[in-house]
Amino acid sequence: QVQLVESGGGLVQAGGSLRLSCAASGTIFSLNAMGWYRQAPGKQRELVARIASSGVTNYADSVKGRFTISRDNAKNTVFLQMNSLKPEDTAVYYCNARPDYSPMSTYWGQGTQVTVSS
Questions:
Q1: Residue pair 97/25 in contact by the 8 Å Cβ criterion
Q2: Are 44 and 107 in contact (CB under 8 A)?
Q3: Counting beta carbons within 10 angstroms of the beta carbon of residue 39, is it exposed (0 to 12), middle (13 to 18) or buried (19 or more)?
Q4: Is 58 helix (H, G, I), strand (E, B) or coil?
Q5: Pairing verdict, β 112-117 and 10-13
Q6: How far is Cα 98 from Cα 77, in angstroms, rounded to an integer?
């Protein structure tokens, strides 16, 4: 059974930084595309950043230059470094895993709250 456990959320002032972590188990982590999504109140869940098993990354335009996604396959963990945070970054952030070997499967973490005060 695949489990994704996020950590690192919290309350931060605008301009500050946070680092989210997502620890995965029950899957061959190195063969998963990993992503961070977020959902603000009253809005749809949206992709923030994604890193393929190859290491190729892509970002939402709204976070380019401020957020960095990375992965440590030895620790089965994906990270999201968030700098220059803005109030509009406030949301619940979810970790997502999509195995290369099972493209129709997708797994979600429970989410971690990020609140940016102005």
A1: no
A2: no
A3: middle
A4: strand
A5: parallel
A6: 14
